[in-house]
Amino acid sequence: MTRAPGALVAALACAAASGGLAQTTFKSGIEAVRLDVSVMREGRPLRGLTADDFIVTDNDVPQRLESMALDTAPLNVIMALDNSGSMTGEKLAHLIDAATAVVNDLRGTDQGALITFSEHVERRVPLTSDRDRLARGVRALRASGGTALRDAILAALALEEDEDHRTVLLVFSDGQDTASWLTERNLLEAVRRARPTIHAIEIPEERIRSTPPPILTTSPNADPRKPPVPGSTPLAGSFLEVLTRAAGGRYWRATKPEQLQAVFRAALDEMRTRYELTFYPPVPNRQGWHRVDVRLKRGAATIAARRLILWSHDRERARSFDMRADLIVVGFVAIVSLSGAAASAQSPARTPWGDPDLQGTWDFTTITALERPAQFAGKEFLTESEAATLEKQINDQRYKTEETSPGSLGGVPRAETDPGIYNLAWWWGPNGRKLVGTRRSSLVVDPTDGRIPALTSRAQAISRARDEAREQRRGPGDLPLAERCIMGFNSGPPMVPGPYNNLVQIFQSPGYVVIVNEMVHDARVVPLDSRAHVGESIRLWAGDSRGRWDGSTLVVETRNFTDNGTGTFGVPGLVDRNMLLVERFSRTGDNALTYSFTMTDPTVWPKPWSAEVPMTRIDGFVMEYACHEGNYSMANILAGARAEEKGK
Known about the structure:
Number of helices: 9
Helix content: 10-25%
Largest sheet: 10 strands, antiparallel
Strand content: 25-35%
Shape: elongated
Structural class: alpha+beta
Distance between the termini: 82 Å
Radius of gyration: 28 Å
Number of strands: 31
């Protein structure tokens, strides 16, 4: 690891401890931040990247990279290989070839170690740079007995490390753990305490494969049909996936032994290809949570990190720790708390069963517009002065309108024939008098102009037809979903801030997340167990949702919408059966959560678009919202339309 002259390095330990959060603090100003990241595309490391290829933001404010370099630290590669009774014939031969290839690919300063496991664990070769000794140990593998996978990983954790090498565990297994004394929960706790990097490779036994996996997949962001579910199955592979996520590594699945050598080499290749990115925060001692986001400017990729490093001149207090993969969310996002002169980092809170804890009641009210106003064209973020001026302008207009036209929506005076609805004591409370904290000029983040793409010609025609139908009000079906109380105007999905009832409560249980919106009190039950979506013939108002964990981010994919649109405020209610909605929920502080979504519907928009909505945790819970338009008001609306027809 290279170090800047005159600076000490202190990295933040972010492992979740049993019953609490592990954190490290040091008393000093933060002068520089360094990120240790890997970049993968289609399962392969991306090489040759330059500083111009990355976008780094701190609390959504773009940062200039001061330096970028490849991490050239030598490796300690500890191989833990399954030689149980199921590893016979060609399978064992291909495993030996794959492990031998890793040994041959070690460089002069690298070291290797070999642990094997059947129903017993053997430390065959300690850490050594002697390639011949390692190769002899690999060639001596013989298959017999059961599988003590968890015990073998614990033995690997006990091997000594040295500061000059970066230690990585490379684990291979082909089936269930049948012989370990150690439980899954205890091993996960040991991994979170020891902070290793673990890469795991699996060939699942044919008899216990629930669905045919692709030829080769990696995780995170690999096969959305097979997300990890802690403790839900006895498969070694599924537990290994959970383990690698907790340890900041990668899970690899192969479907046949012939692939093992390529997979082993790809894993070693990823271990070597890591970039060190350094930037200087503009305000070193800024208080509160800092959200560090790393993305590529062009092309999709999976970005992960092992270390978030803070540089300081406090030589007595600075210490070095690895960063946990728990902080990997959209692209790579690290959540750092800088409070006064003290700096600390935490992993997000976790449920008793080990999932990131998103539970609570969240308020997503804001006066930031969904789309960027014309006056701020080309300006993604407002200055403090611009934000303060805009907030005052919006609120002054609202109060002025309230005085002259009570019961109006926002700052728009109502017509004389409109009896009005709620006043400002109800609208936009309690947080609806402020812009988002990042001062972003719109909730839409992609396209970069902050505007939703123009409707397709087909969508425009459908929109005109629906507007005409709404004017005629021939029957309930002519009115929007929100007016009929079928869907809330802000609850969607997706959720977009509206004038009131901008609350959502999240519940979690092993294998499920439940999202309850205040508006129309709809509840989405989101399974996390990799089950397939319902059949194409089944269509639901809120779609069919399936979730998975990407680091500490909950990713929810929703399909199977109807052809009748959505009630979401500000989003044309034109989406149909072609819509794919991907939502991401990321805990960014004790009382902060970032909700983002991407909508893809080629019927409506020529390209996908994305938005980001900050949420604030509040005390209390969501109470039932009894929307009445669906009972007596609907009859009154239609009766009024018939009366208008008679008067013409």
